[in-house]
Amino acid sequence: MMPDIELLFEIPREEKFGELSNTVALSLARHAGKSPKVLAEEIVKHLTGLLEGSPVKMRIEKVTVEGAGFINFYYTQSELARVVGLIRSEGKDFGKPKGISPKKVLLEFVSANPTGPLTVAHGRQAALGGSLARILKFCGHEVWKEYYNNDEGVQIDTLGESLRFRAEELIENTKKDMPENYYRGAYLIEAAKAALGICGPARFKQMSPKDRFEWAKKAAKDAIFRGIKKDLEDFGVSFDNYYSQEELARSGKVEKTLQELRERGVVFEEEGAVWLRSTKWGDDKDRVLIKSDKTYTYLTPDIAYHHEKFNRGFDELIDILGPDHHGYIARLKASQAALGHDPKKIRVLIAQLVTLYEGGKQVRMSTRAGEFVTLREILDEVGKDTGRFFFLMRKFDAHLDFDLELAKSQTPENPVFYIQYAHARIESIKNTFGKKESDLPWQDPAILLRLDSAQELRLLRLLSQYEDTVLAAARTLEPFRLVPYLTELAGAFHKFYAEKRVVSEDADLTHARMMLVLSVQSVIRSGLELLGVSAPLKM
RNA sequence: GCGCCUGUAGCUCAAUUGGAUAGAGCGCUUCCCUCCGAAGGAAGAGGUUGCUGGUUCAAGUCCUGCCAGGCGCACCA
Fold first, then answer.
1. pLDDT at position A437
2. Buried b or exposed e, range A248-275, using 16+ CB within 10 angstroms
3. For the whole model, what pTM was predicted?
4. What does the pLDDT look like over A273-317, one tens digit per residue?
5. Per mean pLDDT, which of A13-22, A206-215, A381-390 is the most reliable?
6. How far, in Å, CA of A533 to CA of A511, rounded?
7. Which of A14, A29, A37, A503 has the lowest tally of Cβ within 10 angstroms?
8. Nucleotide nearest to A25 (CA to C1')
């Protein structure tokens, strides 16, 4: 009996081990009763026999046994150089992973409560979601981006009270002691001023306390939500839909979902409250749906919302949440399982915290005190490109140190410029070359054969790894995987540039190198596009 | 106390998900522009992968137990 072995090829970490590597001999050695090396030799011998007379043979330079029993495949130069023609013919689609079955994905992210401006934490989630959507779309999935707007409830009421308080301060021209739980940020004073400007002080004075509150609540929500949308827009992140919790409540879907849960017999009453038996699906404890004061918990409308997502026909739900929500995942999944959905179709990404540094000193943040660093400040200080790049540089489940000073510096230690510089530098070479791209002999293997230096082969190898990188990013939902790849590609280009001249007397060599360099530019542009970072022609 | 995340070079992080001699950037020490953009390139120094035991051909990666840091454990949202 054969043991269950996966026959997987991998790209060796080091170039000197060829383009593809296989470890069957290592895993089968014990079963075969031979040393891995001997077994590998036998496999290679057999394989070379099979290759004889096969068209594949033309594409493989050699197959060797190295190390403990690794079987390494080395491509011929012409096989490596094929990627150049491919990049040209596939154009923008180059790197799009093959053989993916398209899914309908609902990507929910940011979803910040409209009680204040977006913070750096939201910035990270926005960058992550925006980039993830681009990557999944590039892979052929249908992606719908949604922002769940938590526009009702206790916090929103408090927000309304806070604005009313500010408005009264302005009208009476006094300073009063603000209640402890109110929102104290300066943005509410601005919003109050603007709202009073529209309504007029006279009308405000005539309002009853209740009218003042309703008026203030609406003004606050509108002002803050407008600001949030503007921040996101300037950050280059767009949504297909803003889903209002208030509208969800009005639609009666929350009650309908509760009814469904009751019919499924997964709800019970105890101590005057209504509970979901979420422990049945792995949650730590059962959860309250309706409190003893008859109001809903946060969970209840959110269950209805996710139920609604499934009912709208999405195959996969991705939620991006902050680290303070990880305790929430189990109950959310349990609730959907209770409604008959497959909880494995929900993928929750927890974006860990961002710590801001300014010249080695930590910048403190606290929402309550109203002193926090906003996404707007990041935009103003470092710009969209650098901001997005920095937020995506690390994997999202690790804490992120964001050094404002480094991000602001237009110096070589800033990694985003390193990549953009390569792109701009190639544009400059293009200008020196002066002829049209379309006139180049893109599909001429004889000319591409001239790309035979170590630097050129390295670039060819890297270019052919782009698709794998995109695929890995999509599979793990980690856009950051593109960052080391692009840095390496840019680095390989800079090294090539320092050692070889592209435009020279030798016409064929010039053409070959132009095609190579333009291919590099095209892949850098594509990769930056997936991150949501621009690829400037000049810097 | 329980759960999740993290621990790798002086600093910030990688390591193709279990592969070969653990790699980059910054910082430090030296070099390289008569020539397509020096926002660049080359060389050097820097490591017991927090500690411990295990699993196997192979462990930074998986499992046990500790240690340290962060975040959570509501009839809040």
1. 93
2. bbeeebbeebbebbeeeebbeeeeeebb
3. 0.94
4. 999 999 999 888 999 999 999 999 999 999 999 999 999 999 999
5. A206-215
6. 29
7. A14
8. B57
Q: How far apart are CA A200 and CA A350, in angstroms?
A: 45
A76 and A60 in contact (C-beta within 8 Å)? yes
Place of tokens 């003042």: A212
Confidence of residue A360 (pLDDT cuts 50, 70, 90): low
Q: DSSP class of residue A189?
A: H
Domains of chain A, each with CATH number or no CATH: 9-75 (3.30.1360.70), 104-153+236-350 (3.40.50.620), 158-217 (no CATH), 354-408 (no CATH), 413-531 (1.10.730.10)
d(CA A171, CA A204): 9
Distance A80 CA to B43 C1' (A): 30
Q: Nearest nucleotide to A472 by CA–C1' distance?
A: B16
Q: How far apart are CA A387 and CA A398, in angstroms?
A: 17
In this structure, what token pair is assigned to residue A458?
Answer: 């390295």
Which tokens belong to A122?
């939201």
**Total residue length of chain A:** 539
Q: How far is the CA of A36 from the C1' of B2 (A)?
A: 46
CB A307 within 8 A of CB A341: yes
* Of residues A230, A536, A538, A527, the one with CA closest to residue A392: A527
A386 contacts: CB under 8 Å, gap ≥ 6 = A407, A408, A414, A416
> What's the rounded Cα separation, in Å, for the pair A396 and A321?
11
Query: Which tens digit of pLDDT belongs to each residue from A329-342?
Result: 999 999 999 999 99
In chain A, positions 106-135 with C-beta closer than 7 Å to nucleic chain B are: 113
